[in-house]
Amino acid sequence: MERLISMRGLLLVSVVGFAILNTWAAEAQSVGVNYGMLGDNLPTPDKVVALLKSKNIKMVRLFDPNPDALKALQSSGIDVVLGTFNEDLQRLGSDAAFAATWVSTNVVPHANAIHFRYVTAGNEVIPGDLAVNVLPAMKNLDAALKAANLEIPVSTVVATQVLGASFPPSQGVFSDDAGVHMVPIVKYLEANKAPLLVNVYPYFAHASDPKNVRLDYALFTAVDPVVTDGTVRYFNLYDSIIDAAYSALEKAGGPSVEIVVAESGWPSSGNGDIATIANAQTYINNMITHLSGTPKRPGKAIESYIFSIFNENQKPVGTEQNFGLYYPNMTQVYNVNFSS
Ligand SMILES: *[C@@H]1O[C@H](CO)[C@@H](O)[C@H](O)[C@H]1NC(C)=O
What we know:
Blueprint: E1 31-35, H1 45-54, E2 59-62, H2 67-73, E3 79-83, H3 89-94, H4 96-106, E4 116-123, H5 134-147, E5 154-159, E6 163-165, E7 173-174, H6 176-192, E8 196-199, H7 202-208, H8 215-218, E9 227-229, E10 232-234, H9 237-251, E11 259-264, H10 277-289, E12 293-294, E13 297-298, E14 304-306
Parallel strand pairs: 1-2, 1-14, 2-3, 3-4, 4-5, 5-8, 8-11, 11-14
Antiparallel strand pairs: 6-7, 9-10, 12-13
Helix pairs in contact: 4-5
The protein binds 2-acetamido-2-deoxy-beta-D-glucopyranose.
């Protein structure tokens, strides 16, 4: 289930920053969207899939294996990142037969008609009570997929709360609370050549400390470097957060684990002059043109999923309801150029 309470990473850094090596190349093919469904007024999945196709969006993340959405996505040419309900983690980790049933129910029937990029066990549960279940769930899902002759990488989705330090980016490290879970997960990802999915929200860093985390740094509009880290210069917070997570992965035994940004977005309403349509439009459109690599991974396109397709009226009142690119009636909140 898509989290009901925001657990997203507040990088309480006195920060700021992004990089350079960013050429301009728009990486339209590396941008997908999150298909959140916490609304009682959303269009049916077939209409949503038609909308995605009309915008040339080739990748979507599902928070859970919604049968109607999966059916609508069949033969659409849209790749899928498939999540599990957090509520299923304990059983997925402790009961291999349950994991096998999950795969045979939610993946196998679609596997000929959908390219699944990853299966993700849990969303933003590390650190926390459910964290201990994540690696066992990943292992059981991986075994079940392999038994079904499916080659789909298995991972999990974390918030930046897993980081104990993130500034400057080279000092990024998992917190002690998260590290006890992350270190074995990272070693597993390294051995299995699977990425770690991370939710990256410059919005929350700016909103929680607007004086020290500059708006232009968060919106990719800074013209001069905002953070210098050794010989590396950062012009935007997005890259800075991702590189902090890369530093943490390296220290946790995952030097070749890649990061996929499972969520990033900016609310268009609900928080004064920070959450505006203009800022959201600037953030999203600039993000799409800045996915050609971070200073720590230059030239490597950053696969990223925008949060979210729709404004969702069953989320907490305020910014949480206003992350959508579209209103539920499929009118765009602002224009996004996916093929710039
Ligand atoms: C769609 O919904 C938005 C927000 O409620 C509204 O402003 C807009 O006029 C609606 N568009 C149509 C075509 O109904």
